[in-house]
Design goal:
With about 300 residues, the protein is an alpha/beta fold. Helix content is about 30%, strand content about 25%.
């Protein structure tokens, strides 16, 4: 049985960190993945070899055992290979039971790990052909993609089309999404025995008219001086259309009016809405006519009495 140099297979040094190993595996796995090399047996064999190498070097316990074996093998080679062959039996798992890892078998049409791997890490119990869950280290890396949407899109819900490996992916962004919301595309992350997931990281851009606070909205409501003093009506823009609001006499600047259910839909509860708070912003009449100045002057004198 031949010794396999997993470090060489992944193209990393023996001093490589876990991060270095993961990055090297991810890059090569994307290149040789069977989905991108249909009918290419060499690429399939290379992909199998990469997964096997990463399964060992990406697991601290397996890597430690493999490094001890490698050190002994190197000493045997430096000694001129005495005894006719290296004794792998002292490193083999008891019983030499073969453990096939489900997902990789499916990808590679039923082929499992090499005899070298199986003899070292096959396990001590069970019968040949036993299937187990893939180790956590064999899972592809989760990826993140920043996405910007407008407040109007967050209100209604929207979609984004992304391209990955020549394929178009349509992602649905739900109504009520906020900055920080994650939209998961299962299995569209980094390659591995189990592919990772792709997460769209949502940012809702600032709006010139509405300010968002959770599921509530805040907006300025321009009210002219005469309406504020004497009462009347003011129009308020909402994301579902314009609303006419009754303004009571002697309304002060900065006063709040609450419009129930006119805010943002709640995430995953699209039939439930926050509120909209309209902040009164007084608009003074300009330019003033001579008559208006006279009337306001008389009013000012009257208030001082």
């Amino acid at each position: 049985m031949d010794y396999k140099d997993y470090y060489k297979i992944l193209g990393v040094n023996k001093s490589a960190t876990e991060k270095d190993i993961k990055a090297a595996f991810r890059k090569l796995a994307q290149k040789y993945h069977p989905d991108k090399n249909l009918g290419d047996n060499k690429a399939e064999d290379k992909f199998k070899e990469l997964n096997e190498a990463y399964d060992v070097l990406g697991d601290p316990q397996k890597r430690a055992k493999y490094d001890r074996l490698g050190s002994s093998y190197a000493q045997w080679e430096r000694a001129g290979r005495p005894g006719g062959g290296f004794d792998f039996s002292q490193w083999a798992s008891p019983g030499g039971t073969r453990v096939d890892y489900g997902n990789l078998n499916d990808i590679l049409n039923g082929s499992g790990f090499s005899d070298f791997f199986t003899s070292l890490f096959g396990g001590a119990a069970g019968s040949a052909g036993t299937r187990s869950r893939p180790s956590a280290t064999a899972r592809g890396e989760d990826l993140e993609q920043p996405i910007e949407i407008s407040l109007e899109e967050a209100y209604r819900g929207t979609t984004r089309v992304l391209e990955k490996d020549g394929r178009k992916l349509t992602a649905r962004i739900p109504a009520g999404a906020k900055t920080g919301t994650k939209v998961r595309l299962k299995g569209e992350g980094g390659a591995g025995q189990l592919p990772g997931d792709l997460y769209l990281m949502i940012t809702v851009t600032a709006h010139p008219h509405w300010r968002r606070d959770g599921d509530d909205l805040h907006a300025e409501m321009p009210v002219d001086l005469y309406t504020a003093l004497l009462g009347g009506e003011a129009r308020v823009s909402t994301l579902s259309g314009e609303v006419v609001l009754s303004i009571p006499p002697e309304t002060q600047g900065g006063q709040l009016f609450r419009l129930s259910g006119k805010g943002m839909p709640r995430l995953r509860q699209p039939e439930t809405f926050g509120d909209l708070y309209a902040h009164v912003s007084l608009r003074l009449p300009t330019p003033l006519t001579a008559h208006e100045k006279q009337v306001l002057g008389e009013l000012a004198k009257e208030r001082k009495k």
